[in-house]
Amino acid sequence: MGRATLADIKGKDLSALAKETKTNTGDTNKVSNANKNRNNTSDSRGKKSRRRHGKMIMPAAVLVSPVQRLFDTCKDVFALSGTGIVPTPDKIEQLRAVLDEIHPANIGLTPRMPCFSPPSYQRAPPITYLHIHECEKFSMGIFCLPPSGVLPLHNHPGMTVFSKLLFGTMHIKSYDWVVDVSSNASAVVTPSETVQHPAVRLAKVKVDSDLTAPCNTSILYPADGGNMHCFTAVTACAVLDVLGPPYSDPEGRHCAYYYDYPFTKLSVDGVTVPEEEKDKHAWLEEREKPEDLVVVGASYTGLEIVEK
Ligand SMILES: [Fe+2]
């Protein structure tokens, strides 16, 4: 796939990259084989156990792959998924716990894969999205960013999003809308510059820091937690993203992109924030999808998911 919005790439299998992924699944195969070996060991122990006790007890939890467990948990956690519907706190914790147990090695991902090496001739290195699953309730996939790769500032309307950094270091900058002054801040304004800006809206910085794996899963919500975010790869890195519900233009969940301007760059009548808070605020202006954003989609060829 060439260029598409983050929403467009979900659910599409692109043969060009699938080939690349296929050639780099040595570790995946190792994982699969390792699992087979584990299963064989388990089988032989089971047979011995059966011989001793006349009955074989299968340790079901051992046989479930981390991705399968993630899929099963998402089905439960997002069973009532819809625009603006946030799972209950216990469901959130359930999913967070499953994500905390996922590591690159056990999902067949390695920094040595070519998608993590930036081609030197391109200014903005392409980002790869490994599609794992998408249904109307949720989507799961992995963003693979080479060094300096950028997922530009974008939103997640009405969604709850879990992002697990699998490896590498990534800078996250995220915002939430400031709602208490939105009536003023979302109005069309004339900025102090000569450049015409159609509309800006006030947002507050939620996160502006580097994240290095292993680290906690980040969670954002429809109205807080940093619903608009930008990822910049400091080193090659991979992020496992779970969205509930997924992007959907027909259902009004369109992926929008934004410019962000320092609070002090524009002046808007009636909108003030305390001096010490100014650097924690910014004006966001919706923009077209950045032209230099290249997201290449591919199917995840790691461990298989079984829909029960
Ligand atoms: Fe995102």
TrEMBL record:
Its cofactor is Fe(2+). It holds the Pfam family PCO_ADO. Residues 20-55 are annotated as: Disordered. It comes from the Eukaryota. Residues 28-42 have a biased composition (Low complexity). The keyword Metal-binding applies. Keywords: Iron, Metal-binding, Oxidoreductase. It is an enzyme of class 1 (oxidoreductase). Transmembrane segments: none annotated. This is cysteine dioxygenase. It comes from Durio zibethinus (Durian). The gene is LOC111299603.
